[in-house]
Amino acid sequence: MRIVLSLALVVFLTQASLAQVTHEIFESFKLQERRNVSYYFPEDYSPEKKYPLVVVLDAEYLFDQVVANAKFYSRFEGMPEVIVVGVEQSKDDLRWEDCAFDEVSGLPSDKGKQFYEFLGMEIIPYLDLNYSTAPFRMFIGYDITANFGNYYLFKDRSFFSAFISISPRLAPEMETRVPERILAIDQQIFYHLISEGGNSTSNSVVKLLDQNLKSIDKPTLHYSYDEYPDANEVSIATYGLGKAWEQMFEVFKPISPKEYKEKILTSEEPVFKYLEDKYAMIEELFGFQKQVSLNDIMAIYAASKKKDDFEALKPLSDLCKKQYPDTMMGFYFEGEYYEELGEAKKALRTFEKAFGMQEIDFLTKELALEKIDALKADFGF
């Protein structure tokens, strides 16, 4: 930490005076200049939790919108709380210097190289070292700053896991380079492309990028595209940011009816594997184990019944015993598992255990008693 701070940073920010949003002067060694930077921290920030990091360029226009989405979705839509850092770029047209690219090679100009290192070697390391950040990092930009985010895909491992690219002004050949880089990278990548439509040369290139990304068949790419023909170059950010934000954190949210119908019921893999994969990805991306929601448990239970996948009931029951130990859920599912196996005595004993525990959701003592009485009647116990 001392090395990074001595080489790169003089930041007037202390945790003792932490507020939800702070605006600070960041003295950059890489840029050899001072930059206005804004930070958002959740009100209940705790070092015991992990927080995804969202980097926002064009902060004068986008920072407040991103923070509003972060607060709304974390409160109502089941996504994790995040830390947001925004870099202001409107003064003296800094955005054009920061994100400029060579018109022939399509690569960042000299100032662009410095700005690339400013984000990757100063801003983000400072936050990683001083705050409890998760592995998941998101980049958000508009127009030329949106294009700049693509350069972080040019490493063997991308510095960012997620990109929201709002009406990007693409550098030469970026419509093919971005898909090529995503194909070459061995990590989860979330990419949301937003366009205001129209038939301009710029939009034609963006649509070509969309076509090329849609053609990629790779389970680690989570790509989505939205076009808003009625939006203009100013309103496009407002039109697209909310939906893009929702898409980015889809994996963290509880299983939706659409997800249940289109992904779980249509999958040829064991039902329980879907739940395992979902929560393994959450842990990989966000750096912590999320408790499996009751909604998701009931979705997997319903799917196991719908698809006659009774083998899913055993691992599901084991999971419930660990995460909902005081409820009857784990033993009830285990009892149904033994029923399906034809092991009536084991099923009876297990339902009796479930009867003695707390009710939860649709699982009631009356339901367990019905199972017990039916087994006794059928097998003469």
Give the key terms:
alpha/beta, Rossmann fold, Serine Threonine Protein Phosphatase 5, Tetratricopeptide repeat, elongated
Task: Please describe what this structure looks like.
The protein is an alpha/beta fold. The protein has two domains: 2-252, 3-Layer(aba) Sandwich (Rossmann fold), CATH 3.40.50.1820; 258-379, Serine Threonine Protein Phosphatase 5, Tetratricopeptide repeat, CATH 1.25.40. The chain is 48% helix and 15% strand. It is built from 15 helices and eight strands. The protein has helices at residues 2-8, 59-76, 94-98, 110-130, 144-149, 174-184, 201-214, 236-248, 257-264, 271-286, 294-306, 313-323, 329-341, 344-355, 365-379, and strands spanning 21-28, 33-40, 51-56, 83-87, 133-142, 162-166, 189-195, 221-227. It has an eight-stranded mixed β-sheet with strand order 1-2-4-3-5-6-7-8, sandwiched between helices. Strand 5, helix 5 and strand 6 (162-166) form a beta-alpha-beta unit. Residues 1-19 have low confidence and may be disordered.
